[in-house]
Amino acid sequence: MTTDAADIQSLETEYLLQVYRRIPIVLNRGEGSHLYDTAGQPYLDFISGLGVASMGHANPVLAEALADQAKTLLHTSNLYFHPLQGQVGERLARLSGLARVFFCNSGTEAVEGCLKFARRYWYSQDVHSRTRFVALERSFHGRTLGALSTTAEPGYRAPFAPLLDVTFVSPDDPLALEAALTDEVAALIVEPIQGEGGVWPLSNELAEVITVGCRRSGTLLIADEIQCGLGRTGAAFHSATLGLKPDLMSLGKALGGGVPIGALLMSQAVADAVSPGDHGTTYGGNLLSCRAALVFLDMLEQGGLERVRQAGDRLSQGLEAIAARHEVVQEVRGAGLMRGIAMTEKAAIAVVAGAQERRLLVNRTGGNVVRMLPPLTVTDDEIDRALDILEQALANHTG
Ligand SMILES: Cc1ncc(COP(=O)(O)O)c(C=O)c1O
Known about the structure:
The chain is globular and about 60 Å long. The strands form four sheets. A seven-stranded mixed sheet has the order 4-12-11-10-7-5-6, sandwiched between helices. The chain folds into two domains: 5-59 and 303-396, Aspartate Aminotransferase, domain 1 (Alpha-Beta Complex), CATH 3.90.1150.10; 62-299, Type I PLP-dependent aspartate aminotransferase-like (Major domain) (Aspartate Aminotransferase, domain 2, 3-Layer(aba) Sandwich), CATH 3.40.640.10. It is built from 14 helices and 17 strands. By secondary structure, the protein is α/β, with parallel strands linked by helices. Strand 10 (220-224), helix 10 and strand 11 (248-251) form a beta-alpha-beta unit. Pyridoxal-5'-phosphate (PLP) binds at residues 50, 106-108, 111, 140-142, 191, 195-196, 224, 226-227, 252.
Protein backbone atom coordinates (compact mmCIF):
# COMPACT_ATOMS: atom_id res chain seq x y z
CA MET A 1 0.00 0.00 0.00
CA THR A 2 1.58 3.27 -1.11
CA THR A 3 1.87 6.17 1.35
CA ASP A 4 3.37 8.54 -1.21
CA ALA A 5 1.05 11.55 -1.47
CA ALA A 6 1.70 12.10 -5.19
CA ASP A 7 1.02 8.41 -6.02
CA ILE A 8 -2.20 8.45 -4.01
CA GLN A 9 -3.42 11.59 -5.77
CA SER A 10 -2.57 10.38 -9.27
CA LEU A 11 -4.25 6.97 -8.75
CA GLU A 12 -7.36 8.70 -7.57
CA THR A 13 -7.36 11.21 -10.40
CA GLU A 14 -7.08 8.39 -12.92
CA TYR A 15 -9.67 5.96 -11.58
CA LEU A 16 -12.26 7.76 -9.44
CA LEU A 17 -15.33 9.55 -10.71
CA GLN A 18 -14.45 13.21 -10.53
CA VAL A 19 -17.36 14.55 -8.46
CA TYR A 20 -15.31 15.99 -5.60
CA ARG A 21 -13.05 19.02 -5.73
CA ARG A 22 -10.49 17.75 -3.27
CA ILE A 23 -7.95 19.81 -1.36
CA PRO A 24 -4.47 18.41 -2.14
CA ILE A 25 -3.77 16.96 1.30
CA VAL A 26 -3.60 13.22 1.91
CA LEU A 27 -4.61 12.36 5.47
CA ASN A 28 -3.82 8.85 6.63
CA ARG A 29 -3.90 8.92 10.44
CA GLY A 30 -5.91 10.57 13.17
CA GLU A 31 -5.93 10.90 16.94
CA GLY A 32 -8.53 12.82 18.93
CA SER A 33 -9.07 16.21 17.26
CA HIS A 34 -6.00 15.84 15.07
CA LEU A 35 -5.39 14.44 11.60
CA TYR A 36 -1.95 13.69 10.16
CA ASP A 37 -0.87 13.84 6.53
CA THR A 38 1.45 11.32 4.88
CA ALA A 39 4.46 13.43 5.92
CA GLY A 40 3.32 13.24 9.55
CA GLN A 41 2.21 16.89 9.73
CA PRO A 42 -0.62 17.39 12.24
CA TYR A 43 -3.81 19.32 11.46
CA LEU A 44 -6.32 20.46 14.07
CA ASP A 45 -9.56 19.10 12.66
CA PHE A 46 -12.49 21.48 13.11
CA ILE A 47 -14.61 19.86 10.42
CA SER A 48 -14.41 16.21 11.65
CA GLY A 49 -15.19 14.59 8.33
CA LEU A 50 -18.23 16.87 7.87
CA GLY A 51 -19.59 16.32 11.37
CA VAL A 52 -18.98 12.57 11.46
CA ALA A 53 -15.96 11.95 13.74
CA SER A 54 -18.08 12.81 16.78
CA MET A 55 -15.89 10.92 19.25
CA GLY A 56 -12.60 12.13 17.78
CA HIS A 57 -10.32 10.16 15.49
CA ALA A 58 -9.06 6.70 16.46
CA ASN A 59 -11.12 6.81 19.64
CA PRO A 60 -9.75 3.85 21.67
CA VAL A 61 -13.14 2.85 23.15
CA LEU A 62 -14.72 2.83 19.69
CA ALA A 63 -11.73 1.02 18.17
CA GLU A 64 -11.89 -1.71 20.81
CA ALA A 65 -15.65 -2.18 20.40
CA LEU A 66 -15.31 -2.38 16.60
CA ALA A 67 -12.44 -4.87 16.78
CA ASP A 68 -14.45 -7.01 19.18
CA GLN A 69 -17.50 -6.87 16.89
CA ALA A 70 -15.41 -7.68 13.81
CA LYS A 71 -14.09 -10.77 15.59
CA THR A 72 -17.62 -11.83 16.57
CA LEU A 73 -20.04 -11.06 13.71
CA LEU A 74 -20.27 -8.25 11.15
CA HIS A 75 -23.42 -8.84 9.19
CA THR A 76 -26.47 -11.06 9.04
CA SER A 77 -28.98 -8.91 7.07
CA ASN A 78 -32.50 -8.12 8.18
CA LEU A 79 -33.76 -11.63 7.47
CA TYR A 80 -33.22 -12.53 11.15
CA PHE A 81 -33.63 -10.98 14.58
CA HIS A 82 -30.75 -8.76 15.38
CA PRO A 83 -28.83 -8.57 18.66
CA LEU A 84 -28.00 -4.84 18.54
CA GLN A 85 -30.62 -2.92 16.51
CA GLY A 86 -33.20 -3.06 19.30
CA GLN A 87 -30.73 -1.62 21.81
CA VAL A 88 -29.83 1.32 19.57
CA GLY A 89 -33.50 1.77 18.66
CA GLU A 90 -34.58 1.88 22.29
CA ARG A 91 -32.01 4.54 23.12
CA LEU A 92 -32.84 6.71 20.10
CA ALA A 93 -36.55 6.44 20.87
CA ARG A 94 -35.90 7.46 24.49
CA LEU A 95 -33.74 10.41 23.43
CA SER A 96 -36.17 11.68 20.79
CA GLY A 97 -39.60 10.80 22.16
CA LEU A 98 -40.37 9.18 18.78
CA ALA A 99 -41.67 5.63 18.84
CA ARG A 100 -39.85 3.64 16.16
CA VAL A 101 -36.58 3.49 14.27
CA PHE A 102 -35.54 2.30 10.80
CA PHE A 103 -31.82 1.86 10.15
CA CYS A 104 -30.10 2.65 6.87
CA ASN A 105 -26.60 3.60 5.76
CA SER A 106 -26.36 7.34 5.13
CA GLY A 107 -28.05 10.66 5.66
CA THR A 108 -29.62 10.89 2.24
CA GLU A 109 -31.11 7.44 2.69
CA ALA A 110 -32.64 8.50 6.00
CA VAL A 111 -34.25 11.49 4.27
CA GLU A 112 -35.43 9.23 1.45
CA GLY A 113 -37.11 6.99 4.02
CA CYS A 114 -38.79 9.96 5.71
CA LEU A 115 -40.24 11.12 2.38
CA LYS A 116 -41.46 7.63 1.55
CA PHE A 117 -43.04 7.04 4.94
CA ALA A 118 -44.77 10.45 4.83
CA ARG A 119 -46.36 9.40 1.52
CA ARG A 120 -47.11 5.97 2.96
CA TYR A 121 -48.90 7.57 5.90
CA TRP A 122 -51.34 9.49 3.67
CA TYR A 123 -51.81 6.49 1.38
CA SER A 124 -52.86 4.39 4.36
CA GLN A 125 -55.37 7.12 5.33
CA ASP A 126 -56.82 6.85 1.80
CA VAL A 127 -55.79 10.47 1.14
CA HIS A 128 -54.29 10.24 -2.32
CA SER A 129 -54.04 13.99 -2.93
CA ARG A 130 -51.31 14.60 -0.33
CA THR A 131 -48.18 13.75 -2.31
CA ARG A 132 -46.25 17.04 -2.44
CA PHE A 133 -43.51 18.30 -0.14
CA VAL A 134 -42.56 21.71 1.20
CA ALA A 135 -38.93 22.58 1.97
CA LEU A 136 -36.97 25.72 2.77
CA GLU A 137 -34.72 27.80 0.59
CA ARG A 138 -31.02 27.23 1.48
CA SER A 139 -31.90 23.62 2.46
CA PHE A 140 -29.64 20.62 1.94
CA HIS A 141 -31.11 17.16 2.45
CA GLY A 142 -28.91 14.92 0.31
CA ARG A 143 -28.17 13.75 -3.23
CA THR A 144 -30.45 10.79 -3.99
CA LEU A 145 -33.43 11.74 -6.14
CA GLY A 146 -36.00 12.23 -3.36
CA ALA A 147 -33.61 14.01 -1.00
CA LEU A 148 -32.25 16.07 -3.91
CA SER A 149 -35.81 17.11 -4.73
CA THR A 150 -36.02 18.76 -1.31
CA THR A 151 -32.55 20.33 -1.62
CA ALA A 152 -32.78 23.97 -2.70
CA GLU A 153 -29.49 24.62 -4.52
CA PRO A 154 -30.39 24.97 -8.24
CA GLY A 155 -26.92 23.88 -9.35
CA TYR A 156 -27.34 20.50 -7.64
CA ARG A 157 -30.87 20.02 -8.99
CA ALA A 158 -30.88 21.17 -12.61
CA PRO A 159 -28.85 18.34 -14.21
CA PHE A 160 -31.19 15.72 -12.72
CA ALA A 161 -34.61 17.21 -13.42
CA PRO A 162 -37.46 16.40 -13.35
CA LEU A 163 -37.51 15.87 -9.58
CA LEU A 164 -40.36 15.42 -7.07
CA ASP A 165 -42.88 18.22 -6.74
CA VAL A 166 -41.51 20.43 -3.95
CA THR A 167 -42.45 23.99 -2.98
CA PHE A 168 -39.53 26.01 -1.59
CA VAL A 169 -40.26 28.78 0.88
CA SER A 170 -37.89 31.39 2.30
CA PRO A 171 -37.08 30.75 5.98
CA ASP A 172 -37.40 34.52 6.38
CA ASP A 173 -41.02 34.51 5.19
CA PRO A 174 -43.27 32.87 7.81
CA LEU A 175 -46.43 34.00 5.99
CA ALA A 176 -45.36 32.24 2.79
CA LEU A 177 -44.68 29.09 4.79
CA GLU A 178 -48.08 29.26 6.42
CA ALA A 179 -49.69 29.63 2.96
CA ALA A 180 -47.69 26.73 1.49
CA LEU A 181 -49.02 24.21 4.03
CA THR A 182 -52.12 23.10 2.16
CA ASP A 183 -54.09 19.85 2.05
CA GLU A 184 -52.01 18.70 -0.94
CA VAL A 185 -48.81 18.53 1.10
CA ALA A 186 -47.62 15.23 2.56
CA ALA A 187 -44.85 16.75 4.68
CA LEU A 188 -42.72 19.78 5.41
CA ILE A 189 -39.02 19.02 5.77
CA VAL A 190 -36.65 21.35 7.66
CA GLU A 191 -33.12 21.36 9.06
CA PRO A 192 -33.41 22.91 12.55
CA ILE A 193 -30.04 24.51 11.76
CA GLN A 194 -29.36 24.70 8.03
CA GLY A 195 -25.84 23.39 7.63
CA GLU A 196 -24.70 23.35 4.01
CA GLY A 197 -26.75 26.48 3.28
CA GLY A 198 -24.50 28.52 5.61
CA VAL A 199 -25.21 27.57 9.27
CA TRP A 200 -28.61 29.26 9.67
CA PRO A 201 -30.59 28.31 12.80
CA LEU A 202 -34.36 28.46 12.21
CA SER A 203 -35.86 31.40 14.07
CA ASN A 204 -38.23 30.84 16.99
CA GLU A 205 -40.83 32.75 14.98
CA LEU A 206 -40.56 30.32 12.06
CA ALA A 207 -40.63 27.35 14.46
CA GLU A 208 -43.90 28.65 15.89
CA VAL A 209 -45.38 29.03 12.39
CA ILE A 210 -44.26 25.48 11.57
CA THR A 211 -45.94 24.09 14.68
CA VAL A 212 -49.19 25.98 14.14
CA GLY A 213 -49.24 25.49 10.35
CA CYS A 214 -48.58 21.74 10.50
CA ARG A 215 -51.25 21.31 13.16
CA ARG A 216 -53.81 23.38 11.23
CA SER A 217 -53.20 21.65 7.88
CA GLY A 218 -52.37 18.18 9.16
CA THR A 219 -49.03 18.31 7.32
CA LEU A 220 -46.42 15.91 8.70
CA LEU A 221 -43.18 17.50 9.92
CA ILE A 222 -39.80 15.94 9.06
CA ALA A 223 -36.84 17.27 11.08
CA ASP A 224 -33.55 16.64 9.30
CA GLU A 225 -31.16 16.35 12.26
CA ILE A 226 -28.40 14.71 10.23
CA GLN A 227 -25.93 17.56 10.80
CA CYS A 228 -27.30 19.51 13.77
CA GLY A 229 -28.68 16.61 15.82
CA LEU A 230 -27.24 13.99 18.17
CA GLY A 231 -25.53 16.37 20.58
CA ARG A 232 -23.92 18.72 18.05
CA THR A 233 -25.69 21.72 19.63
CA GLY A 234 -25.45 20.49 23.23
CA ALA A 235 -29.02 19.13 23.09
CA ALA A 236 -29.93 15.66 21.86
CA PHE A 237 -31.89 17.26 18.99
CA HIS A 238 -32.11 20.90 17.99
CA SER A 239 -35.75 20.52 16.90
CA ALA A 240 -36.63 20.04 20.59
CA THR A 241 -34.72 23.22 21.50
CA LEU A 242 -36.95 25.07 19.01
CA GLY A 243 -40.08 23.50 20.50
CA LEU A 244 -40.76 21.47 17.33
CA LYS A 245 -42.47 18.08 17.56
CA PRO A 246 -41.53 16.25 14.36
CA ASP A 247 -43.46 13.22 13.12
CA LEU A 248 -40.30 11.95 11.41
CA MET A 249 -36.62 12.62 11.96
CA SER A 250 -33.56 11.79 9.85
CA LEU A 251 -30.20 11.00 11.47
CA GLY A 252 -26.74 10.12 10.21
CA LYS A 253 -23.20 11.54 10.48
CA ALA A 254 -22.29 11.59 14.22
CA LEU A 255 -24.23 8.42 15.07
CA GLY A 256 -21.52 6.01 13.90
CA GLY A 257 -18.52 8.21 14.69
CA GLY A 258 -17.08 7.31 11.27
CA VAL A 259 -18.80 3.98 10.66
CA PRO A 260 -21.53 4.60 8.06
CA ILE A 261 -25.03 4.53 9.56
CA GLY A 262 -28.25 6.43 9.02
CA ALA A 263 -31.48 6.18 10.94
CA LEU A 264 -34.93 7.58 10.72
CA LEU A 265 -37.30 7.89 13.60
CA MET A 266 -41.07 8.17 13.41
CA SER A 267 -44.15 8.55 15.55
CA GLN A 268 -46.31 5.54 16.29
CA ALA A 269 -49.00 6.99 14.00
CA VAL A 270 -46.61 6.97 11.01
CA ALA A 271 -45.21 3.57 11.99
CA ASP A 272 -48.74 2.14 12.08
CA ALA A 273 -49.12 3.01 8.39
CA VAL A 274 -46.10 0.92 7.38
CA SER A 275 -46.28 -2.79 6.51
CA PRO A 276 -43.58 -5.45 6.11
CA GLY A 277 -42.07 -5.15 2.63
CA ASP A 278 -42.72 -1.41 2.26
CA HIS A 279 -39.06 -0.52 2.66
CA GLY A 280 -35.72 -2.13 3.41
CA THR A 281 -31.99 -2.15 2.81
CA THR A 282 -29.45 -4.96 2.95
CA TYR A 283 -26.93 -3.26 5.23
CA GLY A 284 -29.41 -1.33 7.40
CA GLY A 285 -28.48 -1.62 11.07
CA ASN A 286 -25.44 -3.75 10.29
CA LEU A 287 -23.82 -5.08 13.50
CA LEU A 288 -20.65 -2.99 13.11
CA SER A 289 -22.56 0.26 12.66
CA CYS A 290 -24.92 -0.51 15.56
CA ARG A 291 -21.97 -1.30 17.80
CA ALA A 292 -20.46 2.08 16.89
CA ALA A 293 -23.78 3.80 17.59
CA LEU A 294 -23.94 2.22 21.06
CA VAL A 295 -20.47 3.57 21.89
CA PHE A 296 -21.51 7.00 20.61
CA LEU A 297 -24.77 7.03 22.59
CA ASP A 298 -22.84 6.00 25.75
CA MET A 299 -20.55 9.00 25.27
CA LEU A 300 -23.48 11.34 24.64
CA GLU A 301 -25.45 10.16 27.66
CA GLN A 302 -22.46 10.01 30.01
CA GLY A 303 -21.74 13.73 30.19
CA GLY A 304 -21.29 14.33 26.45
CA LEU A 305 -24.15 16.80 26.08
CA GLU A 306 -23.01 18.90 29.04
CA ARG A 307 -19.47 18.93 27.68
CA VAL A 308 -20.68 20.12 24.25
CA ARG A 309 -22.61 22.95 25.91
CA GLN A 310 -19.48 24.12 27.77
CA ALA A 311 -17.24 23.75 24.73
CA GLY A 312 -19.83 25.45 22.52
CA ASP A 313 -20.02 28.43 24.88
CA ARG A 314 -16.25 28.79 24.84
CA LEU A 315 -16.14 28.61 21.05
CA SER A 316 -19.02 31.05 20.64
CA GLN A 317 -17.55 33.61 23.07
CA GLY A 318 -14.18 33.41 21.32
CA LEU A 319 -15.76 33.82 17.89
CA GLU A 320 -17.87 36.79 19.01
CA ALA A 321 -14.72 38.45 20.39
CA ILE A 322 -12.93 37.86 17.08
CA ALA A 323 -15.94 39.20 15.16
CA ALA A 324 -15.83 42.40 17.22
CA ARG A 325 -12.17 42.93 16.23
CA HIS A 326 -12.57 42.25 12.47
CA GLU A 327 -14.86 44.40 10.42
CA VAL A 328 -15.06 41.87 7.61
CA VAL A 329 -17.04 39.50 9.87
CA GLN A 330 -20.75 40.06 9.36
CA GLU A 331 -22.17 37.57 11.81
CA VAL A 332 -21.43 34.50 13.93
CA ARG A 333 -24.21 31.92 13.74
CA GLY A 334 -24.99 28.47 15.10
CA ALA A 335 -25.24 26.64 18.39
CA GLY A 336 -23.02 24.36 20.46
CA LEU A 337 -20.23 22.97 18.31
CA MET A 338 -21.87 23.91 15.01
CA ARG A 339 -20.73 27.42 14.18
CA GLY A 340 -20.37 29.59 11.11
CA ILE A 341 -18.70 32.96 10.63
CA ALA A 342 -20.30 34.94 7.80
CA MET A 343 -18.09 37.38 5.87
CA THR A 344 -17.51 38.26 2.24
CA GLU A 345 -17.00 35.30 -0.07
CA LYS A 346 -13.48 36.45 -0.91
CA ALA A 347 -12.59 36.72 2.79
CA ALA A 348 -14.10 33.30 3.53
CA ILE A 349 -11.98 31.69 0.79
CA ALA A 350 -8.87 33.43 2.16
CA VAL A 351 -9.61 32.54 5.79
CA VAL A 352 -10.18 28.83 5.04
CA ALA A 353 -6.90 28.77 3.08
CA GLY A 354 -5.07 30.78 5.77
CA ALA A 355 -6.33 28.45 8.49
CA GLN A 356 -5.20 25.43 6.47
CA GLU A 357 -1.70 26.93 6.04
CA ARG A 358 -1.62 27.18 9.85
CA ARG A 359 -2.84 23.58 10.09
CA LEU A 360 -6.42 24.21 11.14
CA LEU A 361 -9.09 22.50 9.02
CA VAL A 362 -12.37 24.39 8.62
CA ASN A 363 -14.50 24.62 5.49
CA ARG A 364 -16.57 27.12 3.54
CA THR A 365 -20.29 26.65 3.16
CA GLY A 366 -23.12 28.75 1.75
CA GLY A 367 -20.49 30.64 -0.28
CA ASN A 368 -19.40 33.14 2.37
CA VAL A 369 -19.43 31.23 5.66
CA VAL A 370 -16.46 29.65 7.42
CA ARG A 371 -17.91 26.60 9.15
CA MET A 372 -16.74 24.70 12.20
CA LEU A 373 -17.92 21.22 13.20
CA PRO A 374 -15.17 19.94 15.54
CA PRO A 375 -15.38 16.51 17.18
CA LEU A 376 -17.76 16.64 20.18
CA THR A 377 -14.76 15.60 22.30
CA VAL A 378 -12.73 18.73 21.43
CA THR A 379 -10.79 20.16 24.41
CA ASP A 380 -10.68 23.75 25.70
CA ASP A 381 -7.02 24.05 24.64
CA GLU A 382 -7.90 22.94 21.12
CA ILE A 383 -10.71 25.48 20.94
CA ASP A 384 -8.35 28.24 22.08
CA ARG A 385 -5.77 27.21 19.50
CA ALA A 386 -8.37 27.17 16.72
CA LEU A 387 -9.52 30.64 17.77
CA ASP A 388 -5.91 31.92 17.67
CA ILE A 389 -5.42 30.51 14.18
CA LEU A 390 -8.71 31.94 12.91
CA GLU A 391 -7.72 35.33 14.28
CA GLN A 392 -4.37 35.14 12.47
CA ALA A 393 -6.03 34.03 9.24
CA LEU A 394 -8.50 36.91 9.49
CA ALA A 395 -5.77 39.42 10.31
CA ASN A 396 -3.78 38.31 7.25
CA HIS A 397 -6.57 37.98 4.74
CA THR A 398 -6.53 40.31 1.79
CA GLY A 399 -10.18 39.86 0.81
C1 LIG B 1 -28.83 18.25 6.90
C2 LIG B 1 -28.31 17.17 6.01
N1 LIG B 1 -29.16 16.31 5.47
C3 LIG B 1 -28.73 15.30 4.67
C4 LIG B 1 -27.40 15.16 4.37
C5 LIG B 1 -26.95 14.02 3.48
O1 LIG B 1 -26.25 13.10 4.24
P1 LIG B 1 -25.24 12.06 3.51
O2 LIG B 1 -24.16 12.86 2.89
O3 LIG B 1 -24.79 11.14 4.62
O4 LIG B 1 -26.06 11.33 2.50
C6 LIG B 1 -26.48 16.06 4.90
C7 LIG B 1 -25.05 15.97 4.55
O5 LIG B 1 -24.30 16.90 4.67
C8 LIG B 1 -26.95 17.10 5.73
O6 LIG B 1 -26.10 17.99 6.27
